[in-house]
Amino acid sequence: MIRADGGRSLPRNSVLLEQGLDIPDGIAISPDKAWIAVSNHMTHSVLVFDNKERLNRQSRHVGTLLGVSYPHGLRFSPNGNRIYVADAGTPYVQVYEPHRGNWTGEYGPVASFRVLDDETFCKGRHNPEEGGSKGLDLDPSGELLVVTNEEQPLACFHVSALLT
Protein backbone atom coordinates (compact mmCIF):
# COMPACT_ATOMS: atom_id res chain seq x y z
CA MET A 1 0.00 0.00 0.00
CA ILE A 2 1.13 3.57 -0.66
CA ARG A 3 0.04 6.72 1.12
CA ALA A 4 -2.25 8.79 -1.05
CA ASP A 5 -3.10 11.60 1.35
CA GLY A 6 -4.27 12.29 4.87
CA GLY A 7 -3.33 8.83 6.11
CA ARG A 8 -5.39 7.04 3.49
CA SER A 9 -3.69 4.45 1.36
CA LEU A 10 -4.10 2.98 -2.11
CA PRO A 11 -2.97 -0.32 -3.53
CA ARG A 12 0.20 -0.05 -5.63
CA ASN A 13 -0.31 0.86 -9.29
CA SER A 14 -3.85 2.12 -8.75
CA VAL A 15 -5.36 5.26 -10.28
CA LEU A 16 -6.37 8.05 -7.91
CA LEU A 17 -7.48 10.73 -10.40
CA GLU A 18 -8.53 10.63 -14.04
CA GLN A 19 -11.63 12.85 -14.46
CA GLY A 20 -10.86 15.70 -16.89
CA LEU A 21 -7.22 14.73 -17.38
CA ASP A 22 -5.88 14.59 -20.93
CA ILE A 23 -2.13 13.94 -21.00
CA PRO A 24 -1.15 14.93 -17.47
CA ASP A 25 2.52 15.99 -17.59
CA GLY A 26 3.25 17.04 -14.02
CA ILE A 27 1.89 16.88 -10.49
CA ALA A 28 2.42 18.89 -7.32
CA ILE A 29 0.99 18.53 -3.83
CA SER A 30 0.70 21.60 -1.62
CA PRO A 31 2.91 21.63 1.50
CA ASP A 32 -0.13 21.16 3.75
CA LYS A 33 -1.34 18.32 1.45
CA ALA A 34 -4.68 20.11 1.00
CA TRP A 35 -4.39 20.53 -2.80
CA ILE A 36 -3.17 18.44 -5.73
CA ALA A 37 -2.33 20.27 -8.97
CA VAL A 38 -1.94 18.36 -12.25
CA SER A 39 -0.68 19.91 -15.48
CA ASN A 40 -3.08 18.98 -18.27
CA HIS A 41 -1.32 19.13 -21.64
CA MET A 42 -4.22 18.90 -24.10
CA THR A 43 -6.55 21.32 -22.29
CA HIS A 44 -3.78 23.92 -21.87
CA SER A 45 -4.51 24.19 -18.17
CA VAL A 46 -3.59 22.97 -14.72
CA LEU A 47 -6.35 21.24 -12.78
CA VAL A 48 -6.46 21.62 -8.99
CA PHE A 49 -8.12 18.96 -6.83
CA ASP A 50 -9.26 19.43 -3.23
CA ASN A 51 -7.28 16.81 -1.36
CA LYS A 52 -9.27 17.42 1.83
CA GLU A 53 -12.12 15.53 0.20
CA ARG A 54 -12.05 11.79 -0.35
CA LEU A 55 -10.61 11.59 -3.87
CA ASN A 56 -11.25 8.81 -6.36
CA ARG A 57 -11.17 8.24 -10.11
CA GLN A 58 -14.41 10.22 -10.58
CA SER A 59 -13.37 13.21 -8.46
CA ARG A 60 -13.68 16.47 -10.36
CA HIS A 61 -11.21 19.30 -10.12
CA VAL A 62 -12.26 22.38 -8.17
CA GLY A 63 -9.79 24.85 -9.66
CA THR A 64 -8.36 25.61 -13.09
CA LEU A 65 -5.20 27.54 -13.91
CA LEU A 66 -5.48 29.12 -17.37
CA GLY A 67 -3.14 31.13 -19.55
CA VAL A 68 -0.50 28.47 -20.16
CA SER A 69 -0.10 26.84 -23.57
CA TYR A 70 1.45 23.43 -22.72
CA PRO A 71 1.88 23.10 -18.95
CA HIS A 72 4.51 20.67 -17.80
CA GLY A 73 6.44 20.79 -14.52
CA LEU A 74 4.83 22.62 -11.63
CA ARG A 75 5.45 23.32 -7.95
CA PHE A 76 3.70 24.93 -5.03
CA SER A 77 5.70 27.54 -3.15
CA PRO A 78 6.80 26.40 0.34
CA ASN A 79 3.87 28.28 1.94
CA GLY A 80 1.37 26.97 -0.67
CA ASN A 81 0.40 30.50 -1.77
CA ARG A 82 1.77 30.20 -5.30
CA ILE A 83 1.98 27.64 -8.05
CA TYR A 84 4.80 27.94 -10.58
CA VAL A 85 4.15 26.28 -13.96
CA ALA A 86 6.70 25.55 -16.71
CA ASP A 87 5.21 26.07 -20.16
CA ALA A 88 6.67 23.64 -22.70
CA GLY A 89 5.16 25.71 -25.54
CA THR A 90 6.67 29.08 -24.58
CA PRO A 91 9.91 30.37 -23.06
CA TYR A 92 8.03 31.42 -19.89
CA VAL A 93 7.10 30.21 -16.42
CA GLN A 94 3.64 31.25 -15.23
CA VAL A 95 2.88 32.10 -11.60
CA TYR A 96 -0.55 31.72 -9.96
CA GLU A 97 -1.93 32.79 -6.57
CA PRO A 98 -5.17 31.65 -4.90
CA HIS A 99 -8.02 33.80 -3.58
CA ARG A 100 -7.65 33.92 0.20
CA GLY A 101 -5.69 30.64 0.27
CA ASN A 102 -8.36 28.73 -1.64
CA TRP A 103 -7.57 27.27 -5.08
CA THR A 104 -11.26 26.81 -6.01
CA GLY A 105 -12.26 28.62 -9.22
CA GLU A 106 -10.47 29.81 -12.35
CA TYR A 107 -7.17 31.65 -12.24
CA GLY A 108 -5.00 33.48 -14.72
CA PRO A 109 -1.32 34.07 -14.09
CA VAL A 110 -0.40 36.88 -11.70
CA ALA A 111 3.14 36.95 -13.12
CA SER A 112 5.00 35.54 -16.07
CA PHE A 113 8.74 35.49 -16.53
CA ARG A 114 11.04 34.44 -19.30
CA VAL A 115 13.42 31.57 -18.53
CA LEU A 116 14.81 30.92 -22.04
CA ASP A 117 16.36 33.26 -24.59
CA ASP A 118 15.06 33.24 -28.18
CA GLU A 119 17.93 31.16 -29.55
CA THR A 120 17.57 28.38 -26.96
CA PHE A 121 13.79 28.35 -27.26
CA CYS A 122 13.80 28.19 -31.09
CA LYS A 123 16.46 25.47 -31.11
CA GLY A 124 14.08 23.13 -29.25
CA ARG A 125 10.88 24.27 -30.97
CA HIS A 126 10.17 21.33 -33.26
CA ASN A 127 6.39 21.86 -32.94
CA PRO A 128 4.04 24.18 -30.99
CA GLU A 129 4.19 21.88 -27.93
CA GLU A 130 7.98 22.03 -27.54
CA GLY A 131 10.84 24.42 -26.93
CA GLY A 132 10.01 25.69 -23.46
CA SER A 133 10.97 24.36 -20.06
CA LYS A 134 9.61 21.06 -18.88
CA GLY A 135 11.25 20.42 -15.53
CA LEU A 136 10.73 22.91 -12.71
CA ASP A 137 11.55 22.91 -9.01
CA LEU A 138 11.97 25.28 -6.07
CA ASP A 139 14.45 25.05 -3.23
CA PRO A 140 12.93 24.61 0.28
CA SER A 141 13.09 28.37 0.94
CA GLY A 142 11.16 29.14 -2.26
CA GLU A 143 13.83 31.62 -3.27
CA LEU A 144 15.60 29.60 -5.97
CA LEU A 145 13.70 28.41 -9.05
CA VAL A 146 15.33 25.79 -11.26
CA VAL A 147 14.12 24.91 -14.76
CA THR A 148 15.33 22.50 -17.39
CA ASN A 149 14.67 21.45 -20.96
CA GLU A 150 16.49 19.52 -23.67
CA GLU A 151 18.44 22.54 -24.95
CA GLN A 152 19.19 24.08 -21.54
CA PRO A 153 19.98 21.35 -19.04
CA LEU A 154 19.75 23.55 -15.94
CA ALA A 155 19.02 27.21 -15.28
CA CYS A 156 18.61 28.85 -11.86
CA PHE A 157 16.75 32.05 -11.03
CA HIS A 158 16.20 34.09 -7.85
CA VAL A 159 12.42 34.27 -7.47
CA SER A 160 12.48 37.66 -5.76
CA ALA A 161 14.33 39.17 -8.75
CA LEU A 162 11.85 37.65 -11.21
CA LEU A 163 8.74 38.87 -9.41
CA THR A 164 9.80 42.50 -9.08
What does this structure look like?
It is a single chain. Strands 3-4-5-6-10 form a 5-stranded mixed sheet, with no helix packed on it. Strands 7-8-9-11 form a 4-stranded antiparallel sheet, with no helix packed on it. Strands 12-13-14 form a 3-stranded antiparallel sheet. It has helices at 118-123, 159-162, and strands at residues 2-5, 8-10, 24-29, 35-40, 45-50, 63-65, 71-76, 83-87, 92-96, 105-107, 111-114, 135-138, 144-148, 155-158. It starts with a strand and ends with a helix. Strand 13 and strand 14 (155-158) form a beta hairpin. The protein is mainly β and 164 residues long. It has 2 helices and 14 strands; from the N terminus they run E-E-E-E-E-E-E-E-E-E-E-H-E-E-E-H.
Summarize it:
The chain has helices at residues 118-123, 159-162, and strands at residues 2-5, 8-10, 24-29, 35-40, 45-50, 63-65, 71-76, 83-87, 92-96, 105-107, 111-114, 135-138, 144-148, 155-158. The chain has 164 residues and is mainly beta.
Give descriptors for this structure.
164 residues; mainly beta; 5-stranded mixed sheet; 4-stranded antiparallel sheet; 2 helices; 14 strands; 39% strand; globular; disordered N terminus
Give the biggest sheet. Answer: 5 strands, mixed
Total number of helices: 2
- By helix and strand content, what is the structural category? mainly beta
Low-confidence stretches: 1-5
SSE arrangement, N to C: EEEEEEEEEEEHEEEH
